Amino acid sequence: MTFIENIKGGFFQLNRFSFYCFLNVIAFLFCAVNAFSQIQYWVMGGEGYQWEASDSSNVMIKFDTEKNILYPRYFSPEENIYLAVTDWSELRNPQKLGFVDGHQPRLWFMDGLNAYGTSYFDSPLYVDGDRATYNTARDGFWTIDVGVPVPAFQFALYTPTAGTRSDGLPLNKDAVPAFEITVAEESDGSIFELGYNRLPTVISNMTRNFDSEVEIDFRQQYVRFVRFNRNQSLIDEQNTTDSNTIRGTISEFALRGEGVPKRAVYRSKILPIGREVNFGRLFWSARMMRMVDGEPVSVEDGEAWLEVEMRTGRDDDPNIYNEFTDSGKEFPVSRDRYEKVLRDREGAYSTGAILQADRRPGIRASVQDDSDNWSFWSSPLLKSGSTIDLRNGSFLQLQLSLKSRSFFDWIEVDSLWFEISNPLAERVVGEVARSDDPQPARGFTQVNLGDETEFVYDLRGYFSESHGGFDVVRINTRSRPNFIRLEIGEFYEAVEPIKIVTNDSGFSVQLPNHVRQSNDNLIRLVFSSAVYIQAVSFEAEVYDSSSDLLPQPVEPGNASDVLSTNDFRVLAATTKTINYAHKIRVNSGIVTPNGDGVNDEWVMNYELLFLPYPIVVKLVVFNIEGKNIVRVDAGLQEAGLQQIRWNGRDADSNLLSPGLYFAGFELQTESGNVRHVRPVGITY
Question: Taking the CB of residue 285, how many other CB atoms lie within 10 A of it?
């Protein structure tokens, strides 16, 4: 069943036919010459951009070009998974321009002499599907990285079908006499260290082998890395020192399994939007699929999902390319010069020390992110209709991760689309600092956790005549703030806002006038708030209350000379001891659960600190002997003001007998369980 997520905030849904008609209309609107004054849509897939023609890389992705959809590759049991990927690298740590870990397969060989993880020979011959191609026998170990975890139950190695060793032994009889095979689902970093180390799961430790076709079966599991180590054997002790007498010629490696990868990844090219725009919400159309008796069927209870990441820019390249000067420093050059004129550094595949050794002019230096013109990748969006938290731009890049917790469930993606509209300003920059420390010596704002702190937030807009400007500012404080005042202009004149709206996560202020090119464009907001986690970012966005245009994110930067942080980040002061609960208060020392509306519930209020994400909080009650009589989940709670309630009943909703108890909450943290209880009496 194709499902279409609600469009425009849930106003209507579309069936498959209507959806594609809708996309045709969108495509027409997007291409038409108009004022572009309202929200429009940019479409990928369906009747929009072609998935297959727009990818810069993909890992285990298949395309249906006729329907313009994409989905993960499904492996059959007899298929060699290694043949599903191409463009194998022979390097442990490729320095190739554009290399992304997990987006290109690798097969590297290492021994005592080959310390830097490259090859003496053509490693891809081991995974070309041709047993007539091979390399000479070697004493060392091979590491095979397919890029993503795939469902596997067998690893195999084969000798060549033809040829003879220098000592006369036919190559098809030249079996590897002893070996160890280990696998890993993901990398913990040690895989790329120098020297041999065993991967977490051992699937074979063969001390004596005479088979030229070795097929090792194991329990089906997700496998990304396979490490094949040629061990020493009794046969080796009988050989001479002639390297040609090393036993064991390998022609082919194979990995087999059944199902879809744990994740398949699609990354688009840098795509032009056509003009600079603000971004709204992202939507997609997708189906949940499952392999049942050899046939793919649509299901609703599958264990698969889609994650979408985006980044936006103001030009067509998110990188800055550098060349070394005569003094060994770096300076930026064009991509064309970097790729076509400059040379790779010698030993570019080796250690960091060697990489830094050659700093001559004409040698490629580093490639850096162009953070002035490009955003970083967004946090993964997990739900259709989510807001895109990115600054305005005229180019974009998408990355889709099709993930699964089941070998046989996957997501099939028809299309995705997102809202766009004209920007309100060329740029809006902002920065925040404490009122009593506008230019902190360490360059960033620091506060005490849980303390109400007064902040100054400066914003400045940059406009051209085509920008309509804005009159509403919203700041996300992640806790309930107290608005103090609004100041506008270079001399910080206090003015009365038209409207102030405050909630538990921030506040918005409607300005008395639109800020645009002709007006003073410096805005100062003064407010107080408490910080409950170690680092928080007071992100902001601006609106135009008189139009339907999308809000525009505020970028961190130098908004005024009075503040020096150039950032939204606020950090908590370091502390040696972590106290997760703060300012604990209870409404009463007794509970009288008789339904009269007075003390029917016992309430504990508190502040949670240091929690980077919501955790499960448990209600706990103990009797006077210390026996735990209530321990139930009270829901997810995050850093900030929280409370827990108890109605005087046990876990089965039975009233407890009158007497003295100890009630409170328990949370499981990285440092262990934390429990806070207070005495409470029951009487009725």
Answer: 23
pLDDT at res. 577: 56
- Reading the block at residue 227, the tokens are 């490490």
**Residue among 376, 422, 446 at smallest CA distance from 273:** 422
Q: 555-556 and 427-434 as β-strands: parallel, antiparallel, unpaired?
A: parallel
Greatest mean pLDDT among 69-78, 130-139, 612-621 lies in: 69-78
Q: Say yes or no to pLDDT of 242 above 60.
A: no
Three-state DSSP class for residue 598? coil
Residues 6+ apart with CB under 8 A from 129: 80, 83, 252
CA 292 to chain centre: 31
> Which architecture characterizes domain 81-256 according to CATH?
Sandwich (2.60)
Asked whether the predicted pLDDT for residue 613 surpasses 80, the reply is no
pLDDT reported for residue 237? 60
Burial of 84 (C-beta count, 10 Å sphere; 0-12/13-18/19+): middle
Quick: pLDDT tens for 466-495: 899 999 999 999 889 999 999 999 889 999
DSSP 378-395: PPPB-STTEE-----EEE
Show me where the domains of the chain are located: 3-72+267-303+374-399+413-420, 81-256, 324-361, 427-572, 581-682
Neighbours of 499 (CB within 10 A): 10
